[in-house]
Amino acid sequence: MTAPADGRYLEVERQLRNAAPHALLDVTRAELARRFGATDVDLLMADYAVTMLQPVSVLPYTARPVPVGTSEPGKSFGAQQPRVERVSSGVVVHLPVTVRGDRLGVLSVGLPQAPDDVVLDALAQIAEVLAHEIMVAERDTDLYLQARRANRLTLAAEMQWQLLPGRACARAEYSIGAQLEPAYAIYGDNFDWSTSADRLTLTVTNGMGEGIDAALLTNLAVNALRNARRAGTPLADQAALADQAVYGQYEGRLHVSVLLLEFDLTTGDVEVVDAGSPRMWLLRDGTAEPVDFDAQMPLGMFDGTPYTAERFRVVPRDRLIFVSDGVYDVASAGGERYGERALARAINATRLLPAAQVPRAILQELAGHRHASGPEDDAMVLCLDWRGRDQAPAEG
Predict the structure, then answer these.
(1) 144 and 19 in one domain?
(2) Does residue 376 register a pLDDT over 80?
(3) What confidence tens digit (pLDDT) does each residue in 59-96 have?
(4) How many domains does the chain have?
(5) Domain range for residue 351?
(6) Which strand ranges, in their side-by-side order, compose the sheet holding 52-55?
(7) Does 181 share its domain with 64?
(8) Are residues 164 and 138 in the same domain?
(9) Which Pfam families match (predicted)?
(10) Separation CA 60–CA 44 (nearest Å)
């Protein structure tokens, strides 16, 4: 983006960085009114199911949610582009509030007239700064997390959402999008990622059980893997150390299925440890196929299980789809499992969507297949679009 010549963006940025965590929206409203003549400013946060945009308001309630799929703010959220809506009092500019590919919501700004390119650019930059400040502020206030909730979360879901790194991430080499369902009552499925200058580590987890027991088990496994990763341990040893932690706590009564991958961002070489049920699909050159690795024991099943890593390679324009057993084992009213053919169709049908939108689209297809009594298990879908080094810039 080109910095606005009048410097108004920099003044608003300065005020936002100095604002109290709970006062970001108040400061944004005041600054946009003072410097841009804004008549109305609203911040809408995407809910956990990514179906609604919930306005931020005074705790403990939000008001007037709008649908992601059909509303003007929702169209800005989906396209990740500013959108100018004409209204009787002038225009409303809807701006994505996104940080490093993680789509948080939309900033809607009422103006007396349509903005020129300089003003639109400044407003877009302000929305981006606001996204960064919200991520920092969430350490100190519940206001923005509260606004994400269209319904009350179960305690297990609260634990799982707090464990996640986000719902999306993007940089030059790749874009990631992920989603858990049912969003307000998940318990065992999870995902995690961490990136450095030359590496991306990705973990897809499926814990046994239901409710709090499943959430506690998954929390232990994910944090054991993080602890080993942050110590600089090789991938196979990360799995072995996490295996010891889970076995030490549960002595084989419960275990965790994990697919653990480490990507070399320069070459596209991938180390993989397959320790259970999460599966990976590869969409390459228009063909979607499951990728089978050497199946090893889930974490915590036996004492002292050794793990070995195998190799895989991704090339630019590859799309990887990771799914938990809550996706491919779901049954229809007639008892038919979702299965590989249906999943391949869903992957192909979403091939033109950006990575951040793919999980929601596949899970919606899954919901259409599922019988009316509701889910028997939680479900996780994660999409990774690989560009590699010196490829197109990150989306979002």
Answers:
(1) yes
(2) no
(3) 555 568 999 989 999 999 999 999 999 999 999 999 99
(4) 2
(5) 155-386
(6) 66-67, 52-55, 40-46, 102-111, 90-99, 83-87
(7) no
(8) no
(9) SpoIIE (PF07228)
(10) 15
| pLDDT per position as a tens digit, 292-317 | 999 999 999 999 999 999 999 999 99
Average pLDDT estimate for 140-151: 92
Distance CA 96, CA 54 (A): 14
Q: How crowded is residue 311: how many other Cβ atoms within 10 Å of its Cβ?
A: 8
Cβ atoms 307, 236 nearer than 8 A: yes
Q: Is residue 189 part of a domain?
A: yes
Q: What CATH number should be reported for the domain holding residue 223?
A: 3.60.40.10
Taking CA atoms, 48 is separated from 121, 278, 338, 342, 369, in Å, by 29, 22, 24, 25, 21
On whether residue 31 sits in a domain, the answer given is: yes
CA dist., res. 126 & res. 364, Å (int): 33
Joined tokens for residue 152? 């009350």
CATH number assigned to the domain comprising residue 80: 3.30.450.40
Q: How far is CA 241 from the centre of its chain?
A: 27
Assess whether 143 and 170 both reside in one domain: no
**Same domain as 161, residue 30:** no
Phi, psi of 103 (to 5 degrees): -85, 105
Contact 283, 321 (CB under 8 A): yes
For residues 143 and 159, membership in a common domain is answered with no
Report how far residue 384's alpha carbon sits from residue 322's, in angstroms, rounded to the nearest whole number.
8
